[in-house]
């Protein structure tokens, strides 16, 4: 558990901090890892990445907190959530974007760079191959492996349990 | 970015990545480290949860007849509703069962409740305790043998006032949980712990379908 926390604590905490503000991020992050520990037998590494799974749990915790506050409009903490300016749908997409960012960060440097050129700079595989002097097949396989990593993180996100 | 057809075979995942990737910003890469004491706090909590395995708590059922005014209001029906409430719930340790006490000096138990089934829920047993810890108030629910909620439904935890007219949600639960009581909810005026079954219909009000209840005291 400690290794998991050390590896992914900052990812989960950063999402909580962006959506809930720093005051409540710590409590919610702890809720996420406690929930993950309690449902650890339901995590299947073949179904997706652990990082994606943890962020998926965090997403549920944050949205549940929003729901509670909507039902208890006098909660003083509500102001913090409003200040952050994210609603439940925003949490869903922000969480997935951060999962993708995490997957990109985990890629080998070259693979990451090629995927980023393909997506963020809208370059074709041939243009990337020409720019880096790489065989087209190498560019394709690097990007394919990179995208597989992204997909695996999102699949982990999709398999997160609501607990 | 035009995908190479072989990159991602699943068209749904292709569309999803195509939509998400251009939206990724620098902020999505930024990371902040959690507070340094969080790991210790987490391990304490896990250790405490492991210790709960030895606890066995039951309570004799007590029947209190009451008009559930809030429930009638929700449905616009003036039918009387008899409900079971553990108004004077007593927690009894069975035999030599061990009640595990928290070893954390920062946690103080303020009140306890034993939840009674309002309708058959198998062998489910549940109790709750209100604790103060690190300046916050938390409701700790211990539930055993709680079946999973039916498809498209979920369990939700509430604190309700004595008139049963003002339920305050504490969020979804699946069994044993430890949730923070929002500052806007005063357990002294909302002492009834309620677990309801909520349909996934987007309605944030209490469904009126309470499964278990007990009163903090």
SSE arrangement:
The complex is a heterodimer of chains A (163) and B (217).
Chain A: H1 2-20, H2 22-38, H3 50-71, H4 78-84, H5 88-106, H6 109-120, H7 125-132, H8 136-158
Chain B: H1 11-20, H2 38-51, E1 57-58, H3 69-75, E2 92-93, E3 108-117, E4 125-133, E5 136-144, E6 153-160, E7 168-173, E8 177-180, E9 192-199, E10 210-215
Antiparallel strand pairs in B: 1-2, 3-4, 3-10, 4-5, 5-8, 6-7, 6-9, 9-10
What does this structure look like?
The complex is a heterodimer of chains A (163) and B (217). Chain A has 163 residues and is mostly helical. Chain A is 78% helix and 0% strand. Chain A has helices at residues 2-20, 22-38, 50-71, 78-84, 88-106, 109-120, 125-132, 136-158. Chain A starts with a helix and ends in a 5-residue tail after the last helix. Chain B has 217 residues and is an alpha+beta fold. Chain B is 14% helix and 29% strand. Chain B has an 8-stranded antiparallel β-sheet, with no helix packed on it. In chain B, strands 1-2 form a two-stranded antiparallel sheet. Chain B is globular. Mean pLDDT of chain B is 71; it is low at 53-105. Chains A and B meet through helix 1, helix 2, helix 3, helix 5 and helix 6 of A and helix 1, helix 2 and strand 7 of B.
